[in-house]
Amino acid sequence: MNKTFKALAHPVRRQILGLLRSGPMISGDIAGHFDMAWPSLTNHLNVLKDAGLVHSERFGTQIRYRLNAGAAEEAIAAIMALLGKEEKDG
């Protein structure tokens, strides 16, 4: 879970996740939303991937990224538990 929170700590990575909420995107399309060097963007994508927040698939020379909703839901549940907002059976 620490990798997840570290990944979410950076605003660019949160913006990338926001873009992926509408569906999978290739890395070039993601890059078009940011004014940064390609290696910097690649690093952000790798941090998200290492945290399990996104999945990647290679199609020829392109890499398509998609949101891993399950990992995002786990992070939300962990935050809610920290805040004492756990779902109670009843």
Strand content: 15-25%
Q: CATH top level?
A: Mainly Alpha
The residue-averaged pLDDT reads 89
Uncertain segments are none
Structural class: alpha+beta
Structure in words:
- The protein is α+β, with helices and mostly antiparallel strands.
- Helix content is 54%, strand content 16%.
- It has a 3-stranded antiparallel β-sheet with strand order 1-3-2.
- A hairpin with a 2-residue loop joins strand 2 and strand 3.
- The longest helix has 14 residues, at 69-82.
- The chain is elongated and about 45 Å long.
- The two termini are 28 Å apart.
- The model has no long low-confidence stretch (mean pLDDT 89).
Overview in brief:
The chain is an alpha+beta fold and 90 residues long.
Describe the structure using short key phrases:
90 residues, alpha+beta, Arc Repressor Mutant, subunit A, three-stranded antiparallel β-sheet, 5 helices, elongated
Can you lay out the helices and strands and say which pair or pack?
Layout: H1 2-8, H2 11-20, E1 25-26, H3 27-31, H4 38-50, E2 54-59, E3 62-67, H5 69-82
Helix pairs in contact: 1-4
